[in-house]
Amino acid sequence: METAQSQITVSRTLERDMGIREVRIWLDDELIATLTYKQSVTRVIAPGQHTLRAHNTLVGKRVAFDLRPGEHARFTTSNRSGCGTSLIFLLGAGPIYLSLEREE
Length: 104
Prior knowledge:
By secondary structure, this protein is mostly beta strands. It is 5% helix and 54% strand.
């Protein structure tokens, strides 16, 4: 009996995204995409336990998740501003925050 494949989509399309710095996406230690603002990636994967990681060369986030057969998991990632981000414009450097969240 063949097991139904699952899917994962990671999008970088949130309006709060600063639009700077690429975000590299790894699925189970395999680099699957380097996303710029307004891009997304979809992969067909086996059901079960997986780890998704995003990194913008400054900050990284990791999410462990489980997929049922035939399920399509959707995640969003973004480089966003926060307290002190205005230093980027004054000094050329400052904190950039990275988010990686599963959509409901």
